[in-house]
Structure to design on (419 residues):
């Protein structure tokens, strides 16, 4: 390990940069021409090129720093982006040019190697913040559905063995702080101050560089799984089903039965598959917001408190126990969630597979129409998760609606849907 170590460069505080041979490229958020908008440069191969606060890779940036310190990663490494361009084209759409519509991700993040090629040739280390690829996925629940004839193996969307073809995208967060502040109805200075203070001063540029308005926060990003034709998403003549899902490692991966997360995720995937087989597109948006963004440690502490309280786990104490530990019920802030939908050109959702009023309200307030909402079937709710469902009903957490029929969709669409 010692032989691999390289001498670290002298520290140049980003808050007090020295002169540079090449001027920093300004970012004009929302500009229609990507060259006028400018690339987001958060790399350190030349600190003088940086035009944002933070660095790429979100929460994984700390691992990159550790790799440099341990000598496993050359701090001068520049990614070779040959053949890494998206396997499926997405956009650009008018929403990409609206500085208020997309504020928490870079809509040009998947195509920086193309639109900023000249800058890259001049030595600017510009890195993608979005990657789009194709894959196959296999879920045991879908395999069972195929075997029992409830999902059709069409040889295209779904294979004979129950495997599914998907397009998938990985997205790192990129925050335009003036627009983020506006969305939360606070001043940019208040936002910067809070981010600085409550990350322990992690980014001094938040309070020393008023000329930099873009932040690459060290948080988890999101993944998107597309079933069917991605190009059909902005086409109002095509059906669109969407499930926006917030991470729950215990249920999604390990099958914990204290909540409905995996059952609802799987139900969303089933609905997406059926929509794709009808000629539309199904979309799963998966956000890294574990435990309502309170974190998994907090979530497990709440589990203990709920189970051990007098009278056992009760719906009337569900949110109270969370507030006692975390100080708040929920920190997902769905206000930022619709950005990814605008990135993919969504204007209308036929079937939103969600009972959450917070998600529904955030989507519709952002200008996207929702025709109907799809509840989780009663039989999919684990016995131990019924406390959660009862608590959410009592708290007005969601509105429960019956799944729409094909005739309902035809009426709301005002056109004939393909059967």
């Amino acid at each position: 390990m010692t032989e691999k170590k390289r001498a670290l460069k002298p520290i140049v505080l980003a808050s007090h940069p020295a002169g540079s041979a090449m001027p920093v490229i300004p970012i004009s958020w929302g500009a229609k021409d990507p060259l006028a908008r400018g690339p987001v440069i958060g790399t350190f191969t030349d600190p003088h090129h940086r035009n944002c606060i933070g660095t790429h890779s979100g929460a994984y940036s700390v691992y990159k720093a550790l790799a440099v310190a341990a000598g496993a990663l050359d701090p001068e490494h520049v990614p070779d982006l040959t053949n890494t361009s998206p396997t499926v084209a997405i956009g650009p759409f008018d929403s990409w040019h609206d500085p208020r519509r997309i504020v928490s991700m870079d809509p040009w993040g998947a195509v920086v190697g193309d639109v900023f090629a000249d800058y890259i040739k001049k030595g600017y280390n510009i890195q993608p913040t979005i990657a789009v690829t194709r894959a196959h996925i296999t879920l045991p629940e879908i395999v069972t559905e195929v075997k029992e004839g409830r999902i059709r193996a069409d040889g295209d969307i779904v294979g004979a063995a129950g495997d599914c073809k998907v397009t998938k995208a990985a997205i790192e967060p990129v925050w335009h702080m003036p627009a983020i502040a506006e969305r939360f109805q606070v001043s940019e200075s208040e936002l910067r101050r809070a981010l600085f203070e409550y990350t322990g001063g992690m980014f001094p540029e938040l309070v020393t560089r008023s000329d930099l308005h873009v932040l690459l926060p060290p948080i988890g990003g999101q993944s998107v799984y597309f079933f069917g034709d991605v190009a059909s998403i902005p086409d109002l003549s095509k059906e669109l089903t969407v499930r926006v899902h917030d991470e729950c490692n215990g249920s999604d991966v390990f099958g914990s039965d204290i909540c409905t997360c995996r059952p609802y995720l799987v139900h969303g995937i089933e609905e997406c598959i059926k929509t794709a087989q009808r000629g539309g597109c199904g979309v799963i948006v998966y956000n890294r917001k574990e435990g309502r963004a309170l974190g998994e440690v907090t979530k497990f502490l709440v589990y203990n408190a709920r189970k051990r309280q007098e009278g056992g786990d009760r719906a009337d104490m569900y949110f109270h126990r969370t507030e006692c530990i975390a100080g708040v019920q929920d920190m997902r802030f769905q206000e930022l969630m619709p950005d990814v939908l605008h990135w993919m050109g969504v204007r209308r959702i036929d079937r939103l597979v969600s009972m959450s009023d917070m998600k529904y309200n955030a989507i519709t307030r952002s200008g996207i129409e929702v025709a109907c909402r799809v509840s989780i079937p009663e039989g999919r709710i684990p016995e131990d998760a019924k406390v959660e469902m009862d608590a959410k009903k009592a708290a007005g957490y969601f509105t429960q609606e019956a799944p729409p029929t094909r005739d309902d969709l035809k009426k709301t669409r005002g056109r004939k849907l393909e059967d």
Observations:
- Residues 15-23, 414-419 have pLDDT under 50 and may be disordered.
